[in-house]
Amino acid sequence: MTDGLVAERWDAMWLPWRPLASDDLLAGVYRHARADALGMRYVESNPAALSNLLVVDIDHEDAALRACWDRAAWWPNLVVENPVNGHAHAVWALKEPVTRTEYAHRKPLALAAAVTEGLRRSVDGDQGYSGLLTKNPVHGSWNTVVCNSEQLYGLHELAGCLDEAGYLPPASWKRSKRRNVTGLGRNCSIFETARTWAYREVRRHFGDPVGLHVAITAHVHELNAEFPEPLSRNEAQDIANSIHRWITTQSRMWADGPAVYEATFSTIQAARGKRNSNRVTKLLEEWGSNV
What we know:
- Helix content is 47%, strand content 14%.
- The longest helix is centred in the C-terminal third of the chain and has 30 residues, at 258-287.
- The chain is elongated, with a radius of gyration of 23 Å.
- The N and C termini lie far apart (75 Å).
- Strand 1 and strand 2 (30-31) form a beta hairpin.
- It has 291 residues and is an alpha+beta fold.
- The strands form two sheets. It has a four-stranded antiparallel β-sheet with strand order 2-1-3-7, with no helix packed on it. Strands 4-6-5-8 form a four-stranded antiparallel β-sheet.
- It has helices at residues 3-13, 34-37, 63-68, 106-123, 155-165, 184-201, 209-225, 233-250, 252-256, 258-287, and strands at residues 20-22, 30-31, 42-44, 50-58, 78-81, 88-99, 133-135, 143-146.
- It has ten helices and eight strands.
């Protein structure tokens, strides 16, 4: 495929309008106008709050072969290769972008994170790659292989292919330790951890939505700081805003008020205590005279 057609395909699937970009990562990464960024070696993969490109970093000299081998139904759209060492970024483009911050869209985000992990496993890609920047496929420093110039993928379509091939991670993968989570998994981890914490924090802030927002914001940024490569401050703030907005506009516990909240909390605690008591009783019966 000619350089002009590669540029045309990339322009159609690449969404950022003022992306982060750099010619030398050690010299820094800064935002640029889209046209200027297209002249640089590295560009931001996705806009701040959306992901329509799933990118895997393949640090092997046969990266292009790994990305395209034995997967005709789910070839990457592009493989952008370093001609010096054969390492590459493989890019799969989605039909519908996945929102990374909105509460209502957390399930598609979790699926996108699992699919990205499955794609990584399928090529033995870099576990530490954040997905923030990708090799610019229209830059002369790289060799761009167009494996699939027309098809865009649905998340469930890719998940089905990965599951059939044995690469889709199990459900237990979602419970990975936070320090080992990268890419879209960071969003999922922060979102799920922070929202669960916020449900308990609500009882301290009934009638004080501003105080709740401050508390959620602080907690989200604390969680984000635990990652070796945190999300941007704006993206972390978007997560905090989304959790707060959902609780104060959609959640029954906020609408019902403190009395109902405390009654429900007491009921849950009593049920948990009963389950624990029954568990201990059963263990004592099983151990018998050994106790």
